[in-house]
Amino acid sequence: MATLTASRSRFFRYASPATFYPLAGRLWPWFAAVAAVLALAGLAIGLLIAPTDATQGDSYRIIFIHVPAAWMSMFIYLVMAFYAVLTFVFQTRLSAMMMRALAPTGAMFTFIALWTGALWGKPTWGAWWVWDARLTSELILLFLYLGFMALQSAIDDTRRADRAGALVALVGVVNVPIIYFSVKWWNTLHQGASVSLTRAPSMAREMLIGMLLMALACWMYSIAVALVRVRALIVERERDAAWLREAGEA
Amino acid sequence: MNALVAIMRFELLLAWRRKSALATTLGFFVIVASLFPLGLGADPQLLRLIGSGVVWVAALLATLLGLARLFAADHEDGTLEQLRLSCVPLPLAALAKIGAHWLVTAVPLCLAAPILGLQYGLSASAIGVLVASLVLGTPVLCLLGAMGAALTLGLRAGGVLVPVLVLPLEVPVLIMGAGSVEAHMNGLGAGPWLSLLAALLIVFVLATPWVVAFALRISSE
Predict the structure, then answer these.
(1) Is A115 within a domain?
(2) What value of ipTM does the predicted structure carry?
């Protein structure tokens, strides 16, 4: 019982804003630096080293930002839903703040995925936009992010805002598998996945490495930005707390 | 069960005493659907193609109208508080209120839809499919809308927020509903789409009342 309590308390130690705030402050510059290095390496490989595609020419190079952004747009929503579960199960304030901190980044990546897709679609498909299953469900994901953020900013009471937002995040999470599998289920214009864990990738190795580096850079960037934003949220909500005043931040 | 019937009867009586509100939703539905031929031109070929989609979009927007009324009055005068404290399970009470709301706002739409179908030159069998899809789909719209209404209860920006929250989630219903009529007109048969709508309806009737009750608890604690 004693060991259980000990491990539980270690598990929950960083769920307290007072302990997480300095940790996030120490960590975020590292994540930001790693993101910058990875992005530079990924862009160098993607734009300079990777070969020109046999059928699409150089316009395929948009995938180095398009695919990572599309992955992040779905993954961040899943992470938000995970924090929503934590909010309901453990009633931790920090998980709700993390949810809130992640939403703008997720919305930004969704927008980037749609925007770069349009830039790529014009030369390749001949249209900026088609009402294809994957494009439409990605657009709905953007609306879900915007709805989540609109609801959060409309509620003044933080406890209610946290719980209402968590409920919306959980209800909307149904959309993520629909986006991910849409190219398989409906077989429409958007091509299927080029990268999969279960089979060899259908692209040159340099292309794959560039894309994976960019994806990692997007991960690190998301973590860094979320940590900075959650620090701002903590300061905003705990401005009257003694620990914050002792830290000399408020 | 008695509580369910009692709450529904109460809600229906209230709605009957305020008939103008019912007429507003129906009027909005007919006006929105009538605007499209004015904006797009009166080519019968085109109207037949877009008819089912237009009626469905109009129904989607019309069901949003009455949502602000669904819980707001009960929230203000304390009825909701009493319902929470009473021995009636809150999901059941929510289901009763949503059911009454569907009877009051969506059933008139289903009844008016054939007239709009005729205006758009749909065949009699296509109109039948349209009405069937509306009968199966509008309860899902009401259930999702109730969730939005419960989450935004008492907020200043509530009226604008509900569509932003709810419309993205209602897209599958729209696709299936309009798709059923289109499939019928293309000779593919509306059966699969209507079955999907019915399956969606069953899932939503079983699950949504709990979500709505949970949202009401979040909003009124």
Answers:
(1) yes
(2) 0.83
